[in-house]
Design brief:
313 residues; alpha/beta; Rossmann fold; GMP Synthetase, Chain A, domain 3; 2 domains; binds xanthosine-5'-monophosphate
């Protein structure tokens, strides 16, 4: 983290920059409810007022009740938000895709196409995007293609019909959280756990289907509910593509395997598995196998980053 980070100076400089670049035109931000995109939306709202609006892309890959929560949060900040319901487009595009990087590329293509269409309808010219330094470093370093990194890897956003402004691209997560707090955003935003843009699509190993998303969504809700109290940097469930044998209600099943991933980190560049008491892990396992009929096994992942990454793919 930068020493003597002057938050008010940063906020003012970003607001001035947005005003200067957009002058007389319109901008849109795709808001997922995460700290990065919410900070961008608030900066843009302050810079542009009525020349700015947010869009929420309902891609069918969010967590339980997430669309409702995000929309009610944006309402609190009087940010005008258009909801774009495109779940089928994402599922259709992701059909038969199993390779992790291909999944991200396909997600990115549909995401920006939808955004481009929305921005055109709104007669806007700019997308204000919450890309942060870690996204750029990891994508340019070819560790992982973050869906929101375009220009830095030679993709011209004009291909989708807009220009991009990235007010947070020099900051790491802890600094973005400080800016969120300085902007008066609530704890639920500035302490919010990172959630990847492609959402539950990268928490399903192998092909993404609505049925598999439903399973991992339920497991995620259980894992978050039971493990949030340990304040991990991120905690989530992953649905493997393998199967394993189990016995449920006296019957043998060849069922699903859920992995629990919980990590401590400050910047997502390095991470360690959270030390969770055995009893708590047993309780989470019991809940997952009891509440999700298809699940036969629950595993806890120990590998730090490096050599692993935080996400499973
Ligand atoms: P990894 O798995 O690379 O994750 O250690 C580092 C951080 O980035 C998040 N992540 C993503 N975020 N689109 C995103 O917006 C992606 O494709 C993506 N892949 C990983 C991950 O959740 C962690 O916070």
């Amino acid at each position: 983290m930068k020493k003597n980070f002057d938050k008010q100076k940063f906020i003012k400089s970003r607001i001035d920059e947005i005003k200067k670049v957009v002058t007389g035109q319109k901008a849109v931000a795709a808001c997922s409810g995460g700290v990065d995109s919410t900070v961008c939306a608030v900066l843009a709202q302050r810079a542009l007022g009525k020349q700015f609006s947010a869009v929420f892309i309902d891609d069918g890959l969010m967590r339980e009740n997430e669309p409702e929560k995000v929309i009610s949060l944006l309402k609190k900040f009087a940010i005008k938000t258009k909801i774009v319901r495109v779940q089928q487009r994402f599922f259709q595009a992701l059909k038969k895709i199993t390779d992790p990087e291909e999944k991200r590329r396909v997600f990115r293509e549909v995401f920006y196409k939808v955004l481009g269409e929305t921005i055109k309808k709104q007669e806007a010219q700019f997308l204000i995007q919450g890309t942060i330094k870690a996204d750029v470093v990891e994508t340019v370093g070819r560790i992982k293609t973050q869906h929101n990194v375009l220009g830095q890897i030679g993709i011209n956003p004009q291909k989708y019909g807009f220009q991009v402004i990235e007010p947070l691209k020099t900051l790491y997560k802890p600094e973005v959280r400080q800016i969120a707090k300085a902007l008066g955003l609530p704890k639920e935003v500035y302490q919010r756990m990172p959630f990847p843009g492609p959402g539950l699509a990268i928490r399903v190993i192998g092909e993404v289907t609505p049925e598999k998303i439903k399973i991992v969504r339920r497991a995620t809700a259980i894992v978050e509910r039971e493990l949030n109290k340990f304040f991990p940097f991120q905690v989530f469930a992953v649905l493997l593509s393998d199967k394993a044998t189990g016995v449920k209600k006296g019957k043998r099943i060849f069922g699903d395997i859920i992995v629990i991933r919980s990590v401590d980190s400050s910047d997502a560049i390095k991470a360690r598995a959270t030390k969770i008491p055995w009893k708590v892990l047993e309780k989470v396992q019991e809940k997952i196998t009891a509440e999700i009929p298809s699940v036969a096994r629950v595993l806890y992942e120990l590998t730090p980053k490096p050599p692993a990454t935080i996400e499973y793919i």
